[in-house]
Amino acid sequence: MSEPANAFSPAFLEMIHQADWFEYPVSLEAGRWNGPWIVEPQGEHWRVRREGDAKIEAQLERRETALMLAAILPLAFLDPIYDVRQEPEKEQGLGWSLMSTWGDRGFCSIGRLDYGHDEIPIPLHVAHGLLTHPASLAFLLQAAPPEVLAQAGEIVARRCQARRA
Question: Does pLDDT of 61 surpass 90?
Answer without folding.
Answer: yes
